[in-house]
Amino acid sequence: MMIYPQADFARSTPEAQGISSRAIERMLLDIRETGADIHSMLIMRRGHLVFEQYFAPYTAETKHSMFSCSKTFTSMLIGIAQDKGLISVHDHVLDFFPDVEIASVNDNLRAMTIENLLEMGSGHAQDTFGAMLQTENDKNADWVKIFLNRPVDEEPGTRFVYNTGATYMLSAILTRVTGKSALELANAWIFDTIGIKDAEWATCPRGINQGGTGLRITPRDMLRMGTLLLGRGRWKNKQLISNDYICAAQQKHIDNANPDDPNQDPNWAAGYGYQVWRNAFGGFRADGMGGQFIVVLPEREMVVVFTSALGGDLSIGYPLNLIEKYLLPATFDLPQLYGEEAAQSLKKTSEALSHPAFLPIADEAQGFPFGVKFALPENPLRLEKISVYERYLTLTVAGESGFVPYAWGAPALSPDPQLAPAGWTRYARTAATAQWRDDALEIRVNYIGEPLTVYIRFERQGDEMTVSVKGTLGGNAGAAAALK
Fold it and tell me: Which pLDDT tens digit goes with each residue over 112-145?
């Protein structure tokens, strides 16, 4: 029987819902050992929240950028619009925009349907969103026009090409047929009923929600949406999204396997539905850049949520691997014998990760030449200068300098939002943690609520002090020697 949360979730122990506490602790220990930048992990089974972890400095109230998890939310709005008779997934895209000037209309563009947009089979050879983003500072930019004027070289529905611009078009269609934004529709059709409050959703220059990205909600909000999907669109006595659409959305509509990549992660080759990915280990998921996941496992009656800042050295698929390696083998149909020792051990590990202790400066760092300054070469992070002092950094991003305090053993929060690197326009508070490792000072800077973490390493190389910088998103800033 489904249990639907109101102000809070029904709580239970892992064992009472057939899950081993030991397995959950092993997930946490793996995260700690690898240094994976996971921000939250929530596990719900049979309507009960059995585990909820926030890694310092994140809390239950921290809104997080969803990136492409947003796509699944847009898909569900399309499903409701179809349920209401406003549209059909078989409608042609061009029919909604007769007023948009298009330089050349070919048969592929004429044939493109809403379903092709949903399944990432629009017929484009590459994502159209990059061309849209190039105009995001132009108040007159028309992203619909940009999309419809991109070459459609292939027959729609024949090849999977991940296309955030296609999801933007779904949002634009919703606005065309209703006169309301996707966020307004989400609030009225879904969020107000299931308890998601104060959601944010980025827009294009003309005020249309971006659809394929830009949604900001909390991990518990993600869990609410996962509960709705697990319940096949039903919330208590209301069918918010038709069972037929939910079933269709999670089916494989297009092959997303890459024959040229023998090492492709199976979870990105198990088929794609209506703006949802199918998992190689069963079920389906909403999936966002940097490791944002709402994993729905109908056969297990389970929803698992992650927010993260993964990339670079650690694959964004790392949370999915944790589920498959530890959680699924330790999930059973019947309740497990309650183990007090296992529960206490899990609690201790969880508390250490959510409330780490501040430590004194490492002994090895006592002789570090604090006050050293660096000028970086041009780089994708747009990071220009770094200065390191005993308790804080100054970072210059795109000509704007910011104050980033750090602490040893636990993150220190900045008093004010800072301009994030990597070409982002968003400001966010930072949380920075220092450690001494392999004869070098390493400082990790998290941009709160974003899947962006910057790793900075200061070390001596011969007679010089050098800095090297890399980010989970946006590439690396490279290395530089200290200024004389």
Answer: 999 999 999 999 999 999 999 999 889 999 999 9
| pLDDT of the residue at 323 | 98
Of residues 218 and 462, the one with the higher pLDDT is 218
Longest Cα–Cα distance of the chain, Å, equals 72
Give the separation between CA 228 and CA 190, rounded to whole angstroms.
9
Neighbours of 58 (CB within 10 A): 22
Does 136 or 19 have the greater pLDDT score?
19
**In whole angstroms, what is the distance from residue 23 CA to residue 329 CA?**
9
Cα–Cα distance between 274 and 155 in angstroms, integer?
A: 18
Q: How far is residue 451's CA from residue 66's CA, in Å, rounded to a whole number?
A: 9
Residue 54 C-alpha from the chain's centroid: 15
Query: Phi first, then psi: what are they for 198, rounded to 5°?
Result: 60, 35
Secondary structure of the chain as H, E, C letters: CCCCCCCCCEECCCHHHCECHHHHHHHHHHHHHHCCCEEEEEEEECCEEEEEEECCCCCCCCCEECCCHHHHHHHHHHHHHHHCCCCCCCCEHHHHCCCCCCCCCCHHHHHCEHHHHHCCCCCCCCCCHHHHHCCCCCCCCCHHHHHHCCCCCCCCCCCCCCCHHHHHHHHHHHHHHHCCCHHHHHHHHHHHHHCCCCCEECECCCCCECCCCCEEECHHHHHHHHHHHHCCCEECCEECCCHHHHHHHHCCCECCCCCCCCCCCHHHCCCECCCCEECCCCCEEEEECCCEEEEEEHHHCEEEEEEECCECCECCCHHHHHHHHHHHHHECCCCCCCCHHHHHHHHHHHHHHHCCCCECCCHHHCCCCCCCEEECCCCCCCEEEEEECCCEEEEEECCEEEEEEEEECCCEECCCCEECCCCCCCEECEEEEEEEECCEEEEEEEECCCCCEEEEEEEEECCEEEEEEEECCCCEEEEEEECC
Residue 463: per-residue pLDDT: 83
pLDDT value at residue 1 = 62
Q: Write down the pLDDT at residue 480.
A: 87
Q: CA 273, CA 245: separation in Å to the nearest integer? A: 11
293 vs 207: CA distance, rounded Å: 27
pTM confidence score: 0.96
pLDDT tens column, 184-229? 999 999 999 999 999 999 999 999 999 999 999 999 999 999 999 9
428-455: per-residue pLDDT in tens? 999 999 999 999 999 999 999 999 999 9
Distance CA 11, CA 48 (A): 5
Give pLDDT, residue 483: 84
